[in-house]
Amino acid sequence: MRLHHDKHHQAYVDKANTALAGSTLESRPVKEVLTRLSDLPEGSRTAVHNNAGGHANHTLFWQIMTPGVAGEPVGPLADAISSTFGSFETFKENLTAAAINRFGSGWAWLVHDGSGLAVVSTANQDSPLTAGSTPLLGLDVWEHAYYLKYQNRRAEYVAAWWHVVNWDEVARQFGVL
Fold it and tell me: What is the per-residue DSSP string for the chain?
């Protein structure tokens, strides 16, 4: 994960900053940048979309993980998950399937789409923010996230990832909606 954080994530930050240099969104928060891509010159939109998306996605990814915290959410987040998906286990199955079945590189997400919770998957560094959803939990399924330890065994990586989800942080994200 150190290589993932220090090299891959840093590259997204550096490239996003370069693509935003001199624009009206240069000093704006990344969430705002991703919701206002149309304000940018057409020639820089793709670079900003990809790299600011990578930065936003990875920032959440690091925030919602912590070592040795296996478990389940509690409180209002747990209630919302049960209400939406029927149970935590069904939610976990849905997110796991979204992660494992993502063709190529991308992400599996728990989002709030404006009307409630949903599990979605996005390609590459696409962020749910650009679709108007609020990401609460994101699982990186790019090969760079798992290949050094798990090689091509994405399902093993996803199963292991569930043991480091920081449900307190995901609940905090949910609580600010």
Answer: -HHIIIIIIHHHHHHHHHHHTTSTTTTS-HHHHHH-GGGS-HHHHHHHHHHHHHHHHHHHHHHTB-TT--S---HHHHHHHHHHHSSHHHHHHHHHHHHHT--SSEEEEEEE-SSSEEEEEEETT--GGGGT-EEEEEEE-SHHHHHHHHTT-HHHHHHHHGGGB-HHHHHHHHHT-
* pLDDT tens for each residue of 86-129: 999 999 999 999 999 999 999 999 999 999 999 999 999 999 99
Same domain, 39 and 79: no
Residues 79 and 140 in one domain: yes
Judge if 111 and 164 occupy the same domain: yes
User: Is the full-model pTM beyond 0.90?
Assistant: no
Residues 83 and 132 reside in one and the same domain: yes
CA 84 – CA 104 distance, rounded (Å): 28
